[in-house]
Amino acid sequence: MDWIIYTMLALAILILVASTMLYRRRRWVDAGKSLDNTLAACRSLLALVGHFQQHRGMSSALLSGDQAFRARLDGKGREIEGLIPSLREVARAEGARAHPCLTLNDLSLFQHNWGQLREKLAGLSVEQSIAQHSFLIDQLLQWLAALGESRVELLLADHCGRGLVRNYASRLPALTECLGQARALGTSVAARRGCSAVARVRLMFLVARAETLLNQASEAGQRGGRGDRAALAVQEMARVIRTRMLLSSGINVAAEEYFTIATAAVDSVFAWIGESGEQLMQAGAGKQGVGAATRLQRA
């Protein structure tokens, strides 16, 4: 009888070990899927941020009298319309959580405000356009930062420095927005061939803020690659603002030229964000690999 008891006990232990291993494996797989889904949501938000920033800059030029931006502005509006639905599944999934980063109601209100902006744009001043665009972009950046802090950082806290996560979801997006505002305001200044005292102070502030954010992002980890190229592009944009817009000699850069230089700086930072996202994916894959190795050792 004793051997029957020992056999049953051994079987029970084996079943318990197997169940534990399956549970842990399911947790690793679910975490990997969650990270993939969250980073996909972040990419959708980042794409919208970029398009809204460009729409804001083009609107500034058009409202300042540069008609060359009209066709491009209409096309950019259609691109935004095509991207917003990608957030519905994100909002639906987040809505099922106890503390959602965004909800379907949030997204509906955002779409309503965007529709109002498009409808009334022609009657707005440059300053009103920039303010209303910036309000919508700030909402996107808040959702992005919340996903980074509440979802990505939680999943990768023990395998990836917080600096990389915060560069991806917070610091670098904030840098693109700082540069985007400088692009919108500077394009308006170049189109008008005049810089008011208020615009001058604002541009100086935005340049200084961009340089601060750039330094913070660089200190958060090894820059290299796209980070180095972004730093050079941001420095070139700052140089153009300081030497071709804000000197007493006047403005000697055309709206189209300035928009191109500023867009190169913004795009280079988005490329840096993309590189950071790839590093996060690798960190997530490494986490699953370490978990699998640990399970084999324990087995």
Question: Can you tell me about this structure?
Answer:
- The chain is mainly α.
- Helices cover 85% and strands 0% of the residues.
- It is built from 9 helices and no strands.
- Helix 6 (162-192) packs antiparallel against helix 9 and helix 8 (224-244) runs antiparallel to helix 9.
- The protein starts with a helix and ends with a helix.
- The relative contact order is 0.12.
- Mean pLDDT is 85; it is low at 17-32 and 289-299.
Descriptive terms for the model:
299 residues, disordered C terminus, mainly alpha
Record the SSE blueprint.
Layout: H1 2-63, H2 70-83, H3 86-95, H4 104-120, H5 126-156, H6 162-192, H7 197-219, H8 224-244, H9 255-298
Helix pairs in contact: 1-2, 1-5, 1-6, 1-9, 4-5, 5-6, 6-7, 6-9, 7-8, 8-9
Short summary of the structure?
The chain has 299 residues and is mainly α. The chain has helices at 2-63, 70-83, 86-95, 104-120, 126-156, 162-192, 197-219, 224-244, 255-298.
Q: Report the C-alpha radius of gyration, rounded.
A: 24 Å
Number of helices: 9
Task: Give the topology string: H per helix, E per strand.
Answer: HHHHHHHHH
Overall shape: it is: globular
Low-pLDDT windows of residues: 17-32, 289-299
Mean pLDDT: 85
Largest sheet: none
Kindly state the number of beta strands.
0
* End-to-end CA span: 29 Å
Percentage of residues in helical conformation: over 70%
Indicate the structural class.
mainly alpha
Strand content: under 5%
